[in-house]
Amino acid sequence: MADGNLFLKEEDAITASDLQAVQESCGFKFPPEFREHYLRHNGGEPQRYVFRSGEKVLAVHAFLPVKNGPEGGLFEDTYRRLKEERAVFPEHLVPFAVDPVGDYFCFSVRSGDEGAIYHFVGEYIPDYERAITKLSDSLESFLLSLEDDNSV
């Protein structure tokens, strides 16, 4: 994947076994692009982090690390908190990054939509029509669309 975006403040590298353990624990399968991305970047903050689509402007604060990160802020911790304890996410979405106000960027594990990127805004729950916005068909196109903050 040629995303061309530098990631800062990454955690220590992970292995394919680490990703497999998360998949088995959480009960979903990482889309291939995400497997590749996480094997290169375990969490971190993208240097280009502004997403713009028409009137919508969002900021990617950080990708959730699979392991070696802050307690409670790991990928699996977040997944369990949002999907199992609070049960606020639709089944087909998996949170992978957070914005500065605590809303989530997610990828889809739904057949026919696998790997598509969505933004989930918690304040609109239970109105999922407003809470969920599709941003991109793939991680690669999402990462390629991110801009520097001076372009806002």
Structural write-up:
The protein is α+β, with helices and mostly antiparallel strands and 152 residues long. It has one domain (7-151): SMI1/KNR4-like, CATH 3.40.1580.10. 28% of the residues lie in helices and 22% in strands. The chain has five helices and nine strands. It has helices spanning 16-26, 32-40, 75-85, 128-131, 139-145, and strands at 7-8, 45-46, 50-53, 56-59, 62-63, 93-98, 104-108, 117-120, 132-136. The strands form three sheets. It has a five-stranded antiparallel beta sheet with strand order 5-6-7-8-9. The chain has a two-stranded antiparallel ribbon with strand order 1-2. The model has no long low-confidence stretch (mean pLDDT 89).
Brief overview, please?
Helices cover 28% and strands 22% of the residues. It is an alpha+beta fold and 152 residues long.
Order of helical and strand elements = EHHEEEEHEEEHEH
Q: Which class of secondary structure composition applies to the elements?
A: alpha+beta
Shape: globular
Q: Would you identify the CATH architecture?
A: 3-Layer(aba) Sandwich
Rg from alpha-carbon coordinates: 14 Å
CATH class: Alpha Beta
Which assembly state applies to the chains in this document? single chain
The whole-number mean of residue pLDDT values reads 89
As residue ranges, the low-confidence spans are none
Largest sheet: 5 strands, antiparallel
